Fold these 2 entries.
Entry 1:
Amino acid sequence: MMPLLRSELRKVTTTKVLFFLTLAVVLFTALNVFLLVYLTPRAMGVENNDELLTNPEYVTNILGAAGSSSIFVLILGIVAMTGEFRHMTITSTLLVTPRRSRVLIAKGITFLAIGAVIGLIAFATAITLATLTLAGKSHAPIDTGVALQILGGVVLGFAIYAFVGVAVGALIRNQVAAVVGALIWVLIVEALLTVFVDWIGKWLPGGALDAVLQATNVSGRGGNEVLSVGAGAAVLIGYAVILGAIASTTTMRRDIT
Amino acid sequence: MRHRYCSTMPTIGQALTVEHLSKRFGKVHAVQDLSFSVEPGRVTGFLGPNGSGKTTTLRCMLGLVRPTGGAARIGGHVYRDLDHPGMIVGAALEASGFHPGRTARGHLRVISDALGLPKSRADEVLELVGLADSAGRKAGGFSLGMRQRLSLAAALVGDPGILILDEPANGLDPEGIAWLRGLLRGLAREGKTVLVSSHVLSEVQQTVDDVVIISRGSLVQAGTLAELAGNGAVRVRVRTPRREALITALQVTSDGSPPTGLDPTGPDEILVTGLTPSDIGRRAFLAGVELHELAQQTNDLESLFLELTATGTPGGTA
């Protein structure tokens, strides 16, 4: 398995998609920190920023911006898997490793690791910018315990979400269809389902991710019930494993022509 | 487990066997009950018109396409049961399997990593196929000829004993084709098994020892190139002012077997099949018939190939 993992990692480091999507994560995280520190208080009609910033929960939310860019990590996993079919590199991949489920597992593990690293980068971006922008303002202190909790959540959540992306890509081999389908699911279908069917939200992938990220307010699901971190992680891994298993017995078995 | 690459001893090839292989795509029978074998130490040409099922057969051999019947084996095993297939079989299937944004070296390192080989192996094979100067360039900007060379390099990464190349001469200039010929001959001399597909016999005629010819998914002929050439009987064009006298003279059986064919192709011309020019000359001389021309028709393998494979419209996929 080690040579296979090294090969999968090489695939990612020899193209630009990882760089650009990580850049997108950094920029989107930065944007959210700025919004929470500068704009949201004004939009909320709070005369003095300090009223919000002295609220410890609000400061926690600013750090939680690290989890706001999860969609890019999902897309990274999808693009990596569907790219094999789009560019027909799947042929040379399967010539070396004819057992297709091994390829899927190796890519899944690789993107778990890559997702974790991007989560770390997102958190580093959030805490650095939060510290810089809050300096000089009167604000509630950044609680180290809470910060570590958010760090753990973002690293774990992004890792599993990238893995989910790989599984989605294996099931929907057309790159455009898979990316657009995932966006529609996350931004529209799941949001609507959550609104109309109360109990279902926490069991859907996005709801499970929110549980892991512990940042329900950031993703606009404020007030919705979420699972515990552990249960959320288990549900999210469950989605990846089930999608991957379905792909292994259907789309991944197809003839490569 | 990491396996070691040994550059001093050439890897010896194993035989490839195709046994009653069939593949149907929906209603299309791409390959039908196809059987043949490919021996190590020789270059075998896998020939057939476009759409005759060559690529499908090769993809079945490599575990990429699941046969609907029969099997293709490599040294007795189906591809997916091989322990380290990339070290046993190297295949170049088409010139399009590259990520356009990945460099030539990057593409090969993805493969050498998966095979557990050192990073330096990528540059070695790039050198071997004449792409060393383009190692850092992106495959997306490569010409068809360069992509063919990169495909070939990818097939060679694991120094496999068996090479399966689909239309490797496509897009190569004459110099490139000559270079490819030398490379393939050299690999066969080392004892490797080399299978090369083509839809043009003349392209591989000077490279191959054996030929497997298919048409519409079925075997037409398998054997050595010499056997194939022997199948086409010698034809001689003869011009004489005394056509009828010559025909009579050639039909005399007292000094040898009669010709297998005598086609008058003009008032003073006959096409003779089954006799050599010297046979004809001698008989004409003995009969006192004047000859104006005695020309052996070149034994044209390409037209023989076209005859063998011309069985209506192709029924398979490319």
Entry 2:
Amino acid sequence: MTEPDTVDATLRALLADVLGLGEDRAAALTDDSGLFGALPEFDSMAVATVLTEMEDRLGILIDDDEIDGEIFESYGNLLAFSLRKVTD
Amino acid sequence: MSAPEHTLHITPTGTPRATILFVPPLFDEANRTRRTLVLAMRALGADGFATLLPDLPGQNESLVPLEQADLANWQSALADAAATINGPLIIASLRGGALIDHHAKAAAWWRLAPVSGAALLRTLMRARVAADREAGLTSSLDSLQAESATALLILAGNLLSPAMMGQLGSAEVEPVAPLRTVTLGSGADAIAGTPLWLRAEPGEDSTMAAAIAADIAAWSTTCGIS
């Protein structure tokens, strides 16, 4: 339903909102950009906020057992997870 | 509950056109938005409105332990605060504040980006699950939910009672009238701005504060209040 480009743009906007990255830093994220553990703003509360906003903005539901540390390791992992969820 | 809570008042010079009672977002979202809310209050003050921002019991400077608070007593605390105001009153609520603003009596209501209690609770529980995972502990939304039925639970630094957890889980925004609900974005029922309540670190948005003030002032005029 949601196109890959839209998912990418939605995810970047969401991270900009939650982490206060600003448009430039959000646009500069690559697949290899580290998130949890790499960005000081990305704490456990930010993880929680990102998950709830992903559900809201991408129209998906995320179960506890789908979430492991790897999803938040890099922007590429988070994007791949989101794309998989919206096409489910 | 006990002594009156601290309330931030900003009063205009001369007789106020009306009074705006701000209901802050709940928990950490209140800290993230307070600065911008106060900027909006100052702008309304310059426009002739009296504004107040009360502390909810257990929040901000309150001496009440948070575990003694729940949505029901927040609703009555706001109703009490509203009852002390002379002249026309508009209640302006942000986010989770919209879940507790309907017991107060007012001439009009204004809500920005209202959110369900379940969504707030889910985020709080997820923060706990993420923190537990970092600490090598295993918890889940289900296990926390079960635990919360009989015990106090710490979620993202908030010590919450079974009553608070139960009420939050089922709280929805209630109908009030006349009501204007605005979201962030563009269009007739939106204001431009950033969702500061989501932000990991507190920020401020003076443009959004000015837009909040202008929208509330226009709503007051629309309702025939001033």
